[in-house]
Amino acid sequence: MMNTNKTKTASLIATLALGCVLVPNSFAGQPKNPTANLKFSHPRDITNPYLPLASLKQDILEGTEGGKKTRVERTLMPDKHKTFQIGSQMVDALVMEDRVFVNGELEEVALDYFAQDDSGTVFYLGEDVDEYTGGKVTNHEGAWLLGKDTQIPGVILPANPKIGDKFKTEDVSKDINESDEVVSVSETVTVPAGTYQNCVKVKEILADGTTEYKYYAKGVGAVRETPSDGDELLTSHNGVPAKTDSAKPAAASKPVAASEADAREALKKVGVDSQAEAVWLGAINDPKITAETRAGLIEDLNEAGFANPAKPTKAELPMINNRLELIKRLRPKAMDDANAAAFDEARKDLEAMAASLSN
């Protein structure tokens, strides 16, 4: 679910990561029947602070992936029900609909099924998927259901996420498989819908071996999702669109930088501001921008935004580390050799900067 990359699964982005029995605390020490002790008194009342799906009306995330514009409309379907057996219980799932548009055309409609146990952990019970081409359903790739395709439910988020928590999103087959880990609980995320403090950041390793990240804000849910070759940001939460200056559109609404000057300005905030990062990312993947300019925008990750690149400060270490993480994610899918070489140059310098602060 919540994953717009068609080569990964037939789910969509977003916002939500999904999990299974690798490490969820509620499954610990129960290898024979990991669901035996789970209790679902009110499974549709999903109130997990970082994923309050029961109070969601509709969220919209927009951005780019693989150089294409994406839009995900995530909508609660309160009148729909689907029942699953977990252990000895029959569990009535909450149903969410995800509609994925790529370059303005409908590409996928998925019905995702969730339940929250009494501890507050949100479980993922499967999805029904329709894939579209030219306005017609062409396949159901990525669909799976608990009890039919697997006997173990996934976990989207633990009740109380902590750094180091590990869980499996999906563990259905070699193609529908995802491992997750909480890597931060203190992220500040700025997206068109607002700025959110102390977000949970989840690292996801997908079936094809690629890595992406999802960010969850307290009281909201998924606010940012970063596939390996894109960035998708929350633009509307519960029907309330982003507030923007009518004279100056929000930076993240532009699929690519309007000019080199825009991209240069955005570069200063890469690693600390998701809107700026989206503008910069669009520029370095824009074939209309010269290879020399694109390479410069990447190489200068070691300079732009630092008060004195030769003497970085401890306060700048998070930005250094975030940029190194970004390079690790983007380098394997560099647009061309010029971009790839620029990533390597920037990485070496940023690693040296980080090393100087650890001495």
Give a description of the structure.
- The protein has 359 residues and is of the alpha+beta class.
- The protein folds into two domains: 25-241, YmcC-like fold, CATH 2.40.360; 253-358, no CATH class.
- 18% of the residues lie in helices and 35% in strands.
- The protein has a 16-stranded antiparallel sheet that branches.
- Helix 1 (260-267) crosses helix 2 (274-284) and helix 3 (291-299) runs parallel beside helix 5.
Secondary structure topology:
Elements lengths: L57 E8 L2 E9 L5 E5 L2 E14 L2 E12 L5 E12 L2 E4 L4 E2 L8 E4 L8 E6 L5 E15 L2 E13 L4 E7 L3 E6 L3 E8 L2 E2 L18 H8 L6 H11 L6 H9 L17 H14 L6 H22 L1
Antiparallel strand pairs: 1-2, 1-15, 2-4, 3-4, 4-5, 5-6, 6-7, 6-8, 6-9, 10-11, 11-12, 12-13, 13-14, 14-15, 15-16
Helix pairs in contact: 1-2, 3-5, 4-5
What would the keywords be for this entry?
single chain; alpha+beta; YmcC-like fold
